Amino acid sequence: MRVDANFYGSVPMPDAGYGGPAPVDRRYDNPDFLACYDNLTHWAKTMDRLGYDTMWLTEHHFQYEGYEVTPNLILFGLHLAKETERLRLGQMFNVVPQWHPLRLAEDAAMMQILTGGRMQFGVGRGTVPREAQSLGGVVASGDNEMSAELDRINREIFEESMEIIKAAWENETFSFSGKHFTLPPPGIPDRGSTVKNLTLIPKPIAPIDVWQAVTSPPTLDYTARVRHHAVLPARGIDGTKKWWDSFAEKAADGGWELGRGEGRCLALNVHVGRTSAEARESGRNPHDEWIKFLSPYGRFKHYAMADGSETPFDHKPSVEDSIDQQMMAIGSVEEVADLMGRYRDEVGVEHFVLFFDMPGLTQEAMDTQLEMMATEVLPRIGVTSVPNAPLTADLVCVGGLPLTVLLTGADARDHGNGSRVDEQPVGRNSTDRDVVQMLSAENWSTRSRPCQRLSRTTIWFRSCPSAEITVWMWFFPRPPGKSNDWQRQGGACEPRGSRLLPGKLRRFDEVTTRSRPSFESAGLATPRWSLARSSRRVADLAVEFGYPELGCRQTAEGPTGCEGSAY
After folding, report:
1. What is the largest CA-CA distance in the chain?
2. Separation between Cα atoms, residue 558 and residue 543, nearest integer Å
3. What letters, b where the CB count within 10 A reaches 16 and e where it falls short, cover 397-434?
4. Along the chain (567 residues), what's the average pLDDT of each consecutive run of 10 residues?
5. Which end of the chain is more exposed for a tag (fewer CB within 10 A), N or C?
6. Could you give the CA distance from residue 307 to residue 325 in angstroms, rounded to a whole number?
7. How far is the C-alpha of 448 from the C-alpha of 470, rounded, in Å?
């Protein structure tokens, strides 16, 4: 299971709750915004230490009210990457109609490169007219009675922008002609000619998954059709399952077959206490301030009314409503674990994005929330997110070939994204660059860095049950005269997971391949590897791999130091 956290980026707000000022009466200044940035940096380090996968931030502008004060998530994400070791940094979301699409494409590619692949890319259409119209866009909102015309224009701009971004990422040259964008504009003079197409500089070093907010049926249809990953807000067990299953069905209609939990995640507000009463007491004011702030935007109109009447657009639910309708996980360790477990078991959620950041929590209170979730709640549903001492292994890139490493618990059939072992793609983030990609599986997290910059790479384990840990090494494109190469390293795992014990080198010799079109356009053979029983046998398995305790390394002259192993 993958566990992330999302932060809106609120200033310190000790008077949060219905006893404090109305949202429109709040006004903060630069010292408050800087305090928010200090908090976010501190919490990123806490998440990194505890083994959370991704920290997501939220884009908003001009908010003197202090609720959301991070206008540039890519820039702030680069700062956080410098302050952390393995935490991935994502945008939840870049408000695409408020950007020029090519600037966003460039900046995202730059962040991916400069963080060594630790960027997660999220997009949304926006919610606030004050921001949208000041930055050249439009958006439907409660402030304009959810204008259908503005929503149509916003959706057109968003969808054209996403076409441009992906065309720029995936092609050496590109051009675009649509209703809202023509790129390049016609007639640009350039050294005796006119510009006919453009080239994005730089392009991503690996494919970038797109995560998108899904809160309406048209957006669900679009997101599934274009194969964006859906970020679905919690709507109670039954309501969430309808949206969850509908997304998979729509995706399948377009040929995108999703396994359990694949292609989507659940955004869930969380506040945990030692007891139910403590959680309600400490979480009430943050909850109520969040409700005050967002209810004018129709954020809670999917709640049910006690008398069965239609829910008002600006509905303001109580803490009890949020708990009783399973919209938020507010309660004791046991209660929060129970609700998360139900979302996993009854809905199929294998990827949570937890939202602790309701206004009013101090830095220390947020640390407590992150700690209790990682060390007390998640273990109750079989997830231990606190990493033990890192395993350090030598990874050798030979001849400029890219390298992918997949670590799994060999006795665990389900991966962290919910897919079966025989459905798990393991080569998706490799390109023609020297990139080391640590792909996550059950109970541990991921990290990737450019191989040419590292002689050693750290692999962080979240937990280590009494399971065999397996390392699979894979190279592509295929060198002349060689088969695609694999090696499996098995070893028992200590209870603390502090290191991978020495073991026999064993061959993994059943693989199947399937090409990915996005790589074919770049002239690369990019197969999807799986463990299907019907797979064909591949002989002559050898890889460039070194593990110091084994003393076994494959070199250009052949394996050395591997005597006694089943190489």
Report:
1. 77
2. 9
3. beeebbbbbbbbbeebebbbbbbebebbbbbbbbbbeb
4. 96 97 97 98 96 96 97 98 95 98 98 93 96 96 92 97 98 97 97 97 94 97 98 98 98 95 97 98 97 95 96 97 98 98 97 97 97 95 56 28 30 28 28 26 26 24 28 30 30 26 26 26 29 20 29 48 36
5. C
6. 14
7. 18
Name the DSSP letter for residue 10.
P
- Block residue for tokens 């995936």: 170
Q: Match 């209170």 to its residue by tokens.
A: 365
Is-contact 436 454, C-beta < 8 A? yes
Alpha carbon distance 203, 194 (integer Å) = 23
Q: What is the pTM of this model?
A: 0.72
Distances in Å between the Cα of 270 and the Cα atoms of 16, 104, 329, 338 are 17, 31, 5, 12
- Dist. CA 322–CA 494, nearest whole Å: 42
Cα–Cα nearest to 415, from 449, 444, 379, 448: 444
Amino acid, res. 236: G
DSSP string, 377-433: IHHHTT---S--SPEEEEB---TT--EEEEEEETT--B-TTS-BGGG----TT--SS
Q: Is residue 551 classed as helix, strand or coil in its secondary structure?
A: coil
Burial group, residue 143, by CB count within 10 angstroms (0-12, 13-18, 19+)? middle
